[in-house]
From TrEMBL:
Residues 109-281 form the D-isomer specific 2-hydroxyacid dehydrogenase NAD-binding domain. It comes from the Eukaryota. Residues 6-312 form the D-isomer specific 2-hydroxyacid dehydrogenase catalytic domain. InterPro entries: D-isomer_2-hydroxyacid_DH, D-isomer_2_OHA_DH_cat_dom, D-isomer_DH_CS1, D-isomer_DH_NAD-bd, NAD(P)-bd_dom_sf. GO terms for cellular component: cytosol. Pfam families: 2-Hacid_dh (PF00389), 2-Hacid_dh_C (PF02826). The gene is HPPR. This is Putative hydroxyphenylpyruvate reductase. Signal peptide: none annotated. One of its GO terms (molecular function) is NAD binding. Belongs to the D-isomer specific 2-hydroxyacid dehydrogenase family. Keywords: NAD, NADP, Oxidoreductase, Pyruvate.
Amino acid sequence: MENIDVLITTPVNPYLEQELDKRFNLIRLWNYPQKQEFFKNHSDSIRGVVNNPWHPADREFIDSLPALEIVSSYSVGLDHVDLGYCKGKGVKVTNTPDVLTEDVADLAIGLMLTTLRGISECDRYVRSGLWKKGDFKLTTKFSGKKVGIIGLGRIGTAIAKRAEAFNCPISYYSRSEKPESNYKYFPSVVELASHCDILVVACPLTEQTRHIVNREVLDALGPKGFLINIGRGPHVDEPELVAALVEGRIAGAGLDVFENEPHVPEELFGLDNVVLLPHVGSGTVETRNAMADLVIGNLEAHFSKKPLLTPVV
């Protein structure tokens, strides 16, 4: 396989690059500032692509690589890949499900605790010397809060199980009710938001779920409700979220993702009831390396004419 050209679009993991280098002729796109010239000289030889949400595999990109056979995405979400177009062109697509579920669910619980208990604000309070002038304000209890989850897939279910350990009643919204689940189902996000204290976004990003959290949902969540987003930034209408936080129409938010990453609305920086993370849901050494192994395994399976490990298309 050393003679097979594989293109990696962005630097994401040194371990992934090292292992790809051992197996393929790895081409790093960021080493070629003149992209048009690069595609002109290399397009006919590249048979595999490794990408992630920061470099979309859209129609233009796919058409620029006529020899492309497989896109092995270093992510579980695939909103950055034109799946329909790949299918029509005969390009296989794989992702990295399951291996990041635990980390993302752990982070969701961490965001709930940090946001409701003001842990980040407490840390700043001590570091700035304010504790010497008086005790920190009282915060909000997490245990027993009603948790509503948008999307009861792998990650949503893992979050629910963790929240149950805190005696949190669980409800959910998804495209259809899941008969195997004992959690309460609501047929709309507005109804879910109006019946929970903490609303968690954990669904895939599609055209149907873009801005699934809008002004109506935020108003239903109310001034005592908290929003947690570990899905994708575009799930939430960001200007409406900023307005709801600034105006006190919701109590707070814990956000790992944003609509135009890495850009974050500056209005959020001065708000103590918001916890901001740089999209690190799967950001542990163990999980990122497991994701890398899946990416490599899918490429090896394809070029060895074996079944793909995690096929999507």
